[in-house]
Specification:
By secondary structure, the chain is mainly alpha-helical. It is 36% helix and 7% strand. It has four helices and two strands, in the order H-E-E-H-H-H. The model is unreliable at 1-24 and 29-37 (pLDDT under 50).
């Protein structure tokens, strides 16, 4: 019985493999839903998303998207329609057609740290 519980606990903590380096982000959807609930459904699977970005992190995101020519206007820290469309424009370059920011995109844009 103890072995079964351990196996189930380990399976619940499984995460998709990470891509080393921020040069080409891993934005592709993954095959399973994560245990923490900060995952977004996207056919054919799920992808990890930041649970909540602060207003300062959202400003950084907006500045990063503007630096790549994907967003016009002032970085106000509010993820409105223009920001979501810019996120879609950035992620679609890597095969992820979603306005919801993925962890891979946030890391490649310098918003979140890249795990070592």
């Amino acid at each position: 019985m103890k072995r079964m519980i351990l196996v189930l606990a380990l399976a619940a903590c499984a995460r998709p493999p990470e891509v080393a380096g921020p040069v080409v982000p891993n934005l592709a959807p993954v095959a399973e839903k994560g245990a923490e609930g900060c995952w977004q459904e996207q056919a054919p699977g799920w992808f990890e998303t930041p649970c909540d970005l602060s207003r300062d992190e959202t400003r950084s995101l907006q500045r990063a998207l503007a630096a790549r020519g994907l967003l016009d206007g002032t970085a106000d820290g509010i993820a409105g329609t223009a920001t979501r469309k810019a996120i879609l424009g950035y992620q679609s370059q890597y095969g992820l057609e979603s306005e919801t920011l993925s962890i891979g995109a946030a890391r490649s844009l310098g918003i979140l740290p890249v795990p070592m």
